[in-house]
Amino acid sequence: MRLGPYVSLLRQNPAFTRLYVAQLASFAGDWFATVALLGLALEFTGSAAVASLVLVLQTGGFAAASPLAGILADRLDRRRLLIAADLARVPIALGFLLARGPDTLWIALVCVALLAVGAAFFEPTSSAALPNLVDRERLPEANVLIGSAWGTMLAVGAALGGLVAVTLGRDVAFVINALSFLASAGLIYGIRGSLQERQGPVGGGAGPRVGESLRDALAFARGNRLVAAFLLSKTTFGVGTGLIAMLAVFGSSVFDGGDAGIGVLFAARGLGALVGPFAGRAIVGTDDRGLLVGIAASLGVVAVAYGLFPLAPAIWVAALLVFVAHCGGGAQWVFSTLGLQRATPDHLRGRMFSFDYGLVTLVITASTLLAGILAESLAPAIAVWTMVGLIVVAGVGWLLFALGAWRAAAASAG
């Protein structure tokens, strides 16, 4: 795995480097806050369902705002939209400081949902803008770096977040989250390259309604099986991602690690998401056929690793399995994102990514609710195995659907 191309991209492209570092800052703060908030919810309520609700609100708020976010990402200046999304989240992030007990936990939950709305405007806009900051031949490296930024800061932010919450208190973690959005906004403000193709006046005209936006994205995907296969990839994995809520339960309660235990498992998740994109690109390449093969292989890795997770005798064994699982999860996220960026024209890209992220977060919301209910009524291990079963079923369906796209990609490559 050669790092030279990635280092040269960062050195030679300051606009991309600013976006990359902005993502690092924002993600680090997010995970500081998430670990602290999950610990707070478990301490105040002792309920796995409430811990799951934190993640449900993150994904549900994102899904609800995604349709409008997609329109704005294609109609407004993307740099200004990214900055606005960051600045709006600063006071919301500070709202976590008002949750001082079980009676005020609802304030933190409202803030979680509002932060997710801000993320719904930021993440698809960033993904849509990326191809306009780098040359087409450097797009794979750029996606690996951006994809690994989430994993890097999950690994670092979750581990440090657990440590900070234990040693300095959760309030410090919440303040760091707010400051991370300020840092991100400042970095993006300095980007001078265009984040969209200038095919007409940005923001001109009445623009499409939300329903029309969704129909545009769906019509484009229906007419291209390869695009549809990439579009459904994240959602296929999302069917079983109620597993993530179980990391908090296992880290805090099953392994009796408290906030630090949550931080260890989330850090292992992030480390896997960091390594996966680099390793995946080195193994399967970045042509369309390789991307589809990589997504299929990732499905198997996630299912096997999480199938063994409840049997782990100690938290360090569990952390190793989580790392392996999210090597697969991180790789498939980058593969599907790269495939969509290359196959979707710029004037549709914002809407396509908002639909992509909105669909997967909607599915993750349902999956997380189900996992929380199962963990509450049965047992955490049963919840994990149920989610693994759902991933297997959904994965088989995706493989059958994507087979036609793989044959077409193989024929064009031959």
Please give the structural blueprint.
Layout: H1 4-12, H2 14-45, H3 48-75, H4 78-94, H5 105-129, H6 139-167, H7 170-189, H8 210-222, H9 225-238, H10 243-254, H11 258-284, H12 288-308, H13 315-343, H14 346-377, H15 380-413
- Compute the average pLDDT: 82
Total strands: the figure is: 0
The coarse silhouette is globular
The helical percent reads: over 70%
Estimated structural class: mainly alpha
Q: Which regions contain 5 or more consecutive residues with pLDDT less than 50?
A: 200-208
The CATH topology assignment is Growth Hormone, Chain: A
The number of domains is 1
CATH class: Mainly Alpha
Fraction of residues in β-strands: under 5%
Q: Report the sheet with the most strands, covering strand number, pairing sense and barrel closure.
A: none
> Strand-and-helix sequence, N→C?
HHHHHHHHHHHHHHH
Under the CATH scheme, the architecture is Up-down Bundle
Q: End-to-end distance, in Å?
A: 26 Å
Number of helices: 15
Using only CA atoms, what is the Rg? 20 Å
CATH superfamily: MFS general substrate transporter like domains
Report on this model:
This protein has 414 residues and is mostly helical. The protein has a single domain (12-195, 209-413), classed as Growth Hormone, Chain: A (Up-down Bundle). Helices cover 83% and strands 0% of the residues. The protein is globular and about 55 Å long.
